[in-house]
Write a structure and sequence with these properties.
The chain has 97 residues and is mainly alpha-helical. The protein has three helices and four strands. The strands form two sheets. The protein has a two-stranded antiparallel ribbon with strand order 1-2. It has a two-stranded antiparallel ribbon with strand order 3-4. The protein is elongated and about 75 Å long. The mean pLDDT is 88.
């Protein structure tokens, strides 16, 4: 499941990374993380204490991983904006005619 989620989010991030989407990526990463945690809680009949034991370390939270596959953090995608380019017009200016 993590492989499929990673593929989908990577595709979305690559497509929308040129937009003003940093906040959206952050919210989407938050949503995905919580959905997976809720799914694991339901599947394994865990309480929050069990999830905390699974993902919490003394230095902070670790990413969700299973079988060596780690959930990709879509919020870490660099957002690059298009630069304005000065391309000369192929048509002559109407003022000079």
């Amino acid at each position: 499941m993590l492989i499929r989620i990673n593929r989908i989010t990577r595709g979305w991030a690559e497509y929308f990374r040129h937009a003003v989407a940093k906040h959206t990526f952050d919210r989407l990463a938050y949503f995905i993380w919580w959905r997976i945690v809720r799914w694991v809680k339901t599947k394994r009949r865990w309480r929050w204490k069990d999830v905390h034991r699974w993902l919490r370390t003394p230095t902070g939270w670790r990413p969700i991983a299973a079988d060596g596959i780690e959930l990709r953090n879509i919020a870490a995608t660099p957002v690059t904006r298009y630069r304005r380019r000065s391309i000369p017009s192929p048509w002559p200016c109407a003022n000079h005619a």
